[in-house]
Amino acid sequence: MAAVITAFAKNFLGDAPRWYKIAIVAFLVANPLLAVTAGPFAAGWALVAEFIFTLAMALTCYPLQPGGLLAIEAIVIGLVAPDEVYAEATHNFSVILLLMFMVAGIYFLRDLLLTVFTKLLVGIRSKLLLSLTFCAVAAVLSAFLDALTVIAVIIAVAVGFYGVYHRYASERGHEDDHDHGDDRGVADEHRADLERFRAFLRSLLMHAAVGTALGGVATLVGEPQNLLIGNTVGWGFLDFLVEVAPVSIPVVIAGLLLCVLLERLRWFGYGAVLPASVGKVMQAWDRRSAEQRTPRVTARLIMQGITAVLLVVALAFHLAEVGLVGLGVIVVATAFTGVTDEHAIGSAFREALPFTALLVTFFAVVAVIHAQGLFTPIIEWALGIDGQGRLLALFGATGVLSAISDNVFVATVYITEIAKAAAAGQLTQLQFEHLAVAVNVGTNIPSVATPNGQAAFLFLLTSGIAPLIRLGYVRMLWMALPYTIVLTMVALGAVVVFF
User: Looking at the whole model, is its pTM more than 0.70?
Assistant: First the structure.
């Protein structure tokens, strides 16, 4: 019997450390007791803190299992009803579709992406210029495309770069089977360069992730909450662009300047340059790829390029839901590049589906926040302040709450309450519009502080590239910190000056 109990203990959360398993069990035991003694409101906040803990320990144990257990328990002890979780998931169905199909669609464009970005990596020798390029391109794309799609492209490129060098460092041939998550085969003379290459990729990815927030705040289609806010106020695309511009333009300029400064000063984990040995490997890989490019490979790259153009057009003009566009990419990219095997197609979904399941679990936690009114006291406090103080309070409240919760949910709650106040005659139309700008900026900019606030950041944290380049929750917090401080201060200053 003792052996069976030991086996159960070892099986629980697999290879996670013993202290971590004990912590999760303690959470599961404490939550029902807390709900009975202190009430569901306190238990709800405890659940939010515990879920954030599982995200912080993402490199120790994937958050789906421990976070999922906490979400299931929340339903069992009555913090939220299953129908409310379902309603929250269906409300975000477009995001679920996006993750299921768009990320998989990007997988079938990886040859083209790796070829193009390798040209950039080889051609742009300056790390500062390369970082600025990644940040600026991510910002421009995110102003018109979904941030998750943009970050999925960057992740696919980073995985490709890492795989090329890791195979070389492990002294494996191009046709050999290779697991680039296993460092045991890496030759000793390449280990130092591999660590420097990881630092190089970490900084590029974080610059790009912040870039998605810089562009996402500026336009009606940049983030899902922007569209919600714009529709509530009655703004079209140009209206939204003009109304938010007094804040978004200074924020974008400050973000790009900070990117340059961080690379120059090498603070907060930035500034790592591409090791010379890695550059040579990339150049050799680029030459070899060009020399071995058969007519069939060339045709595949051309078709992937055409598919990429169709993708950008479809997303820019919003011809369909993003997830459905992603499904179209899968169909076109596979049909015209010779990928018809079921298993080959299935491999594209390995990256997306675990995160999709995690995001639905996250929606369950958001449903608890809604059901227990965890944000209600903060909402009432912010709306109860008069004059410009209310504007600043809304900016601060939405920023703080978006850093620990879903920013779309926070924006929905606040813009709904503001719209009710405007309809009741408590606000003028100008005050309504100014408060809408504050909510939009508050849910977009301060939320870069943690992976919880931005879906693109959370996707990066839980993606396959994160453990490869040692990008954990705490490191993401540290690398995002200068951006959080500077961009929040600039946004707040712009709100004060212009509104």
Answer: yes
